[in-house]
Amino acid sequence: MEDFDINLGPTVLSHEVSNERLADAFFSEDGIGAIVRCHYEIERATISVLDSMTDGRWKKKSKSYLSENLYLLKVLGAPDKVLIPARTINSHRNDFAHEGLETISEQQALDVTHAIRAFYPKLDNNFRVEFDGKRVFSGNFADCTPHQRYVVCAAAEAFFIAAIPMIMAEYFRKTSSQTSSRP
Q: pTM for the whole thing?
């Protein structure tokens, strides 16, 4: 399922990503807290999608790992390009937890940005970023710090993970209509 379209138009997701938690990560000066918040939102989206795609029949352990859940999504047919940014964020979270990192580096922000842009090129330097809550930010992606760019990409990834059932349904709808129109 490498040839898929991420442009679904206006879409209502069955999983609600916490904009408040992501705004806290965006405005935080704490790299560790930001990474944990981003990871948590992606993990929540992954669990929600697995529940949706399996109608609650997958064996959710009391303690599951994001890497295992991403693998299950891959087995169920989720596009690898959509899963790669989540794997990257999971790897960075592990680096923070096990190697004592405290700040999000430019390279980490670039890693996640490149992974998102591999399937969503609209996230370019002119991509509009708006956060409105306790604090306000309105600017282009290029105006963000590496920390903020990382959070924007993680937020996008949480939404893309939540949209996997719709991405897959649209892909299969298109491929089945192409197959049925063959002579």
A: 0.88
